[in-house]
Amino acid sequence: MRRIFLISKRVAMVMSLFATLGLCAHAPSASAQGRGAVTLESVLGQMDSQAKNFHSLSADVERTKVTVVVNDRSTETGTMLAHDDKMLLDMKAPDPRTILLSGGTLSVYTPGLKRVEEYDLGKNRGMVDQFLLLGFGTSGKDIRNDYAATLVGEPTIDDKKTAELELIPKSQAALAHFTKIQIWLDEASWLPVQQQIFETGSGDYSIIRYSKVVRNPQIPDSEFKAHWPKGTQKVKPQG
User: Which portions of the chain are predicted below pLDDT 50?
Assistant: First the structure.
Protein backbone atom coordinates (compact mmCIF):
# COMPACT_ATOMS: atom_id res chain seq x y z
CA MET A 1 0.00 0.00 0.00
CA ARG A 2 2.85 2.39 0.80
CA ARG A 3 4.42 1.74 -2.62
CA ILE A 4 1.15 2.64 -4.32
CA PHE A 5 0.95 5.81 -2.22
CA LEU A 6 4.51 6.80 -3.22
CA ILE A 7 3.77 6.21 -6.90
CA SER A 8 0.55 8.18 -6.63
CA LYS A 9 2.37 11.04 -4.90
CA ARG A 10 5.05 11.09 -7.60
CA VAL A 11 2.39 11.04 -10.32
CA ALA A 12 0.82 14.09 -8.68
CA MET A 13 4.15 15.93 -8.76
CA VAL A 14 4.84 15.06 -12.37
CA MET A 15 1.27 15.87 -13.36
CA SER A 16 1.65 19.32 -11.89
CA LEU A 17 4.71 19.77 -14.12
CA PHE A 18 3.35 18.84 -17.49
CA ALA A 19 0.22 16.77 -16.97
CA THR A 20 -2.13 17.58 -19.79
CA LEU A 21 0.38 18.66 -22.39
CA GLY A 22 -1.21 19.87 -25.60
CA LEU A 23 -0.51 20.00 -29.29
CA CYS A 24 -0.65 22.78 -31.85
CA ALA A 25 -1.99 22.14 -35.32
CA HIS A 26 -0.52 23.70 -38.44
CA ALA A 27 -3.72 24.31 -40.38
CA PRO A 28 -7.47 24.66 -39.74
CA SER A 29 -9.55 21.54 -40.08
CA ALA A 30 -12.21 21.59 -42.75
CA SER A 31 -14.98 21.27 -40.17
CA ALA A 32 -13.74 24.47 -38.46
CA GLN A 33 -14.70 26.47 -41.53
CA GLY A 34 -18.34 27.37 -41.87
CA ARG A 35 -19.45 25.16 -39.00
CA GLY A 36 -22.43 25.76 -36.76
CA ALA A 37 -22.49 26.41 -33.03
CA VAL A 38 -19.91 24.58 -30.95
CA THR A 39 -21.26 21.98 -28.53
CA LEU A 40 -19.57 19.56 -26.14
CA GLU A 41 -20.34 16.68 -28.47
CA SER A 42 -18.89 18.47 -31.50
CA VAL A 43 -15.69 19.24 -29.58
CA LEU A 44 -15.28 15.63 -28.44
CA GLY A 45 -16.00 14.48 -31.99
CA GLN A 46 -13.18 16.67 -33.28
CA MET A 47 -10.86 15.20 -30.66
CA ASP A 48 -11.78 11.72 -31.92
CA SER A 49 -10.75 12.76 -35.43
CA GLN A 50 -7.49 14.41 -34.33
CA ALA A 51 -6.47 11.41 -32.20
CA LYS A 52 -6.16 9.24 -35.31
CA ASN A 53 -3.28 11.36 -36.65
CA PHE A 54 -1.13 11.90 -33.56
CA HIS A 55 2.14 10.00 -33.19
CA SER A 56 4.76 12.24 -31.61
CA LEU A 57 5.52 15.75 -30.36
CA SER A 58 8.38 18.08 -29.46
CA ALA A 59 7.90 21.42 -27.71
CA ASP A 60 9.21 24.01 -25.31
CA VAL A 61 7.24 24.08 -22.05
CA GLU A 62 6.48 26.88 -19.61
CA ARG A 63 4.76 25.95 -16.38
CA THR A 64 3.60 28.45 -13.76
CA LYS A 65 2.70 27.17 -10.29
CA VAL A 66 0.39 29.37 -8.20
CA THR A 67 0.39 28.88 -4.42
CA VAL A 68 -2.88 30.47 -3.36
CA VAL A 69 -2.41 30.91 0.39
CA VAL A 70 0.67 33.15 -0.03
CA ASN A 71 -0.24 34.46 -3.49
CA ASP A 72 3.06 33.19 -4.90
CA ARG A 73 3.75 32.49 -8.58
CA SER A 74 6.80 30.54 -9.72
CA THR A 75 7.65 29.76 -13.34
CA GLU A 76 9.91 27.10 -14.79
CA THR A 77 10.82 26.21 -18.35
CA GLY A 78 12.01 23.18 -20.23
CA THR A 79 11.65 20.97 -23.29
CA MET A 80 9.69 17.80 -23.89
CA LEU A 81 9.38 14.92 -26.32
CA ALA A 82 6.55 12.41 -26.66
CA HIS A 83 6.10 9.36 -28.84
CA ASP A 84 3.12 7.04 -28.43
CA ASP A 85 3.13 6.13 -24.70
CA LYS A 86 6.62 7.46 -23.95
CA MET A 87 7.53 10.91 -22.64
CA LEU A 88 10.73 12.78 -21.82
CA LEU A 89 10.68 16.12 -19.98
CA ASP A 90 13.86 18.12 -19.35
CA MET A 91 13.26 21.01 -16.99
CA LYS A 92 16.12 23.50 -17.40
CA ALA A 93 15.43 26.36 -14.99
CA PRO A 94 15.29 27.17 -12.18
CA ASP A 95 15.33 23.58 -10.83
CA PRO A 96 16.97 21.23 -13.37
CA ARG A 97 15.63 17.67 -13.51
CA THR A 98 14.67 15.05 -16.06
CA ILE A 99 11.46 13.02 -16.01
CA LEU A 100 11.20 9.92 -18.18
CA LEU A 101 8.11 7.78 -18.70
CA SER A 102 8.91 4.64 -20.66
CA GLY A 103 7.34 1.20 -20.47
CA GLY A 104 6.25 0.53 -16.93
CA THR A 105 8.82 2.81 -15.30
CA LEU A 106 8.67 6.46 -14.22
CA SER A 107 12.14 7.92 -13.59
CA VAL A 108 12.95 11.28 -12.00
CA TYR A 109 16.60 12.34 -12.32
CA THR A 110 17.98 15.23 -10.24
CA PRO A 111 21.45 16.23 -11.50
CA GLY A 112 22.21 18.38 -8.45
CA LEU A 113 21.89 15.29 -6.25
CA LYS A 114 23.29 12.87 -8.86
CA ARG A 115 20.30 10.65 -8.10
CA VAL A 116 17.49 9.04 -10.06
CA GLU A 117 14.30 7.72 -8.48
CA GLU A 118 12.78 4.82 -10.43
CA TYR A 119 9.15 3.85 -9.87
CA ASP A 120 7.74 0.56 -11.12
CA LEU A 121 4.23 1.64 -12.07
CA GLY A 122 2.75 -1.81 -12.45
CA LYS A 123 -1.04 -1.71 -12.42
CA ASN A 124 -0.89 2.04 -11.72
CA ARG A 125 0.24 2.68 -15.31
CA GLY A 126 -3.37 3.25 -16.37
CA MET A 127 -3.80 6.15 -13.93
CA VAL A 128 -0.47 7.62 -15.03
CA ASP A 129 -1.49 7.50 -18.69
CA GLN A 130 -4.85 9.10 -17.91
CA PHE A 131 -3.03 12.23 -16.72
CA LEU A 132 0.43 12.41 -18.22
CA LEU A 133 -0.68 11.44 -21.72
CA LEU A 134 -3.85 13.54 -21.72
CA GLY A 135 -3.67 15.65 -24.88
CA PHE A 136 -1.34 13.25 -26.65
CA GLY A 137 -3.85 11.88 -29.10
CA THR A 138 -6.53 11.68 -26.43
CA SER A 139 -9.86 10.87 -28.04
CA GLY A 140 -13.29 12.21 -27.18
CA LYS A 141 -14.18 8.67 -26.12
CA ASP A 142 -11.35 8.71 -23.57
CA ILE A 143 -12.59 12.04 -22.21
CA ARG A 144 -16.11 10.64 -21.81
CA ASN A 145 -14.83 7.56 -20.00
CA ASP A 146 -12.46 9.28 -17.57
CA TYR A 147 -14.03 12.69 -16.90
CA ALA A 148 -17.28 14.54 -16.38
CA ALA A 149 -16.83 17.16 -19.11
CA THR A 150 -18.50 20.56 -19.49
CA LEU A 151 -18.15 23.12 -22.28
CA VAL A 152 -17.52 26.38 -20.40
CA GLY A 153 -17.26 28.88 -23.25
CA GLU A 154 -15.25 30.09 -26.22
CA PRO A 155 -12.63 32.59 -24.97
CA THR A 156 -9.76 33.92 -27.10
CA ILE A 157 -6.20 32.99 -26.05
CA ASP A 158 -3.17 34.32 -27.91
CA ASP A 159 -5.41 35.47 -30.78
CA LYS A 160 -6.89 31.99 -31.07
CA LYS A 161 -10.58 31.29 -30.56
CA THR A 162 -10.80 28.34 -28.20
CA ALA A 163 -13.32 25.93 -26.76
CA GLU A 164 -12.82 25.78 -23.00
CA LEU A 165 -13.59 22.45 -21.33
CA GLU A 166 -13.78 21.70 -17.63
CA LEU A 167 -12.84 18.11 -16.82
CA ILE A 168 -13.61 16.57 -13.44
CA PRO A 169 -11.97 13.14 -12.90
CA LYS A 170 -14.38 10.29 -12.30
CA SER A 171 -12.00 8.10 -10.28
CA GLN A 172 -11.52 8.65 -6.55
CA ALA A 173 -7.78 8.03 -6.93
CA ALA A 174 -7.53 10.97 -9.32
CA LEU A 175 -9.76 13.21 -7.23
CA ALA A 176 -7.46 12.66 -4.26
CA HIS A 177 -4.91 14.81 -6.11
CA PHE A 178 -6.81 17.02 -8.57
CA THR A 179 -10.26 18.52 -8.34
CA LYS A 180 -10.48 19.53 -11.98
CA ILE A 181 -8.60 20.29 -15.17
CA GLN A 182 -9.42 23.12 -17.54
CA ILE A 183 -8.32 22.74 -21.12
CA TRP A 184 -8.51 25.25 -23.96
CA LEU A 185 -8.78 23.78 -27.47
CA ASP A 186 -7.88 25.81 -30.54
CA GLU A 187 -11.02 25.78 -32.70
CA ALA A 188 -8.85 25.80 -35.81
CA SER A 189 -7.16 22.55 -34.80
CA TRP A 190 -9.21 21.08 -31.90
CA LEU A 191 -6.02 20.49 -29.94
CA PRO A 192 -5.03 22.05 -26.59
CA VAL A 193 -3.21 25.38 -26.40
CA GLN A 194 -3.31 25.74 -22.59
CA GLN A 195 -4.23 23.74 -19.50
CA GLN A 196 -4.88 24.61 -15.88
CA ILE A 197 -4.74 21.93 -13.18
CA PHE A 198 -6.28 22.47 -9.73
CA GLU A 199 -4.88 20.53 -6.77
CA THR A 200 -7.12 18.97 -4.15
CA GLY A 201 -7.18 20.56 -0.69
CA SER A 202 -4.87 23.52 -1.14
CA GLY A 203 -6.59 25.02 -4.18
CA ASP A 204 -3.15 25.62 -5.71
CA TYR A 205 -3.00 25.33 -9.47
CA SER A 206 -0.62 25.12 -12.41
CA ILE A 207 -0.86 26.72 -15.84
CA ILE A 208 0.97 25.03 -18.72
CA ARG A 209 1.75 26.72 -22.06
CA TYR A 210 3.68 25.48 -25.09
CA SER A 211 5.84 27.04 -27.80
CA LYS A 212 7.96 25.88 -30.75
CA VAL A 213 5.63 22.91 -31.07
CA VAL A 214 6.34 20.35 -33.77
CA ARG A 215 3.66 17.77 -34.39
CA ASN A 216 4.65 14.26 -35.45
CA PRO A 217 8.44 14.76 -35.71
CA GLN A 218 10.70 11.76 -36.24
CA ILE A 219 11.98 10.83 -32.76
CA PRO A 220 14.25 7.78 -32.38
CA ASP A 221 13.46 5.33 -29.61
CA SER A 222 16.94 5.97 -28.21
CA GLU A 223 15.69 9.34 -26.91
CA PHE A 224 13.55 7.44 -24.40
CA LYS A 225 16.34 5.24 -23.06
CA ALA A 226 17.78 6.00 -19.63
CA HIS A 227 21.18 7.65 -20.14
CA TRP A 228 22.11 8.81 -16.66
CA PRO A 229 25.66 10.06 -16.03
CA LYS A 230 28.23 7.69 -14.56
CA GLY A 231 28.08 7.69 -10.79
CA THR A 232 24.33 8.40 -10.60
CA GLN A 233 22.72 6.84 -7.53
CA LYS A 234 19.63 4.78 -8.37
CA VAL A 235 16.85 4.68 -5.82
CA LYS A 236 13.80 2.44 -6.10
CA PRO A 237 11.28 3.49 -3.42
CA GLN A 238 9.45 0.54 -1.91
CA GLY A 239 7.19 -0.12 1.01
Answer: 1-7, 18-34
DSSP string, the chain: -HHHHHHHHHHHHHHHHHTT-----SS--GGGSS-----HHHHHHHHHHHHTT--EEEEEEEEEEEEGGGTEEEEEEEEEEEETTEEEEEEEESS-EEEEEETTEEEEEETTTTEEEEEE-GGGHHHHHHHHTTTSS--HHHHHHHEEEEEEE--EETTEEEEEEEEEE-SHHHHTTEEEEEEEEETTTTEEEEEEEEETTT--EEEEEEEEEEES----GGGGS--PPTTPEEE----
Q: What is the pTM of this model?
A: 0.77
Taking the domains of the chain in order of start, what are their residue ranges? 2-217
Which CATH class, in words, describes the domain spanning 2-217? mainly beta
Query: For 27-61, what is each residue's pLDDT tens digit?
Result: 344 444 445 689 999 999 998 998 888 888 888 88
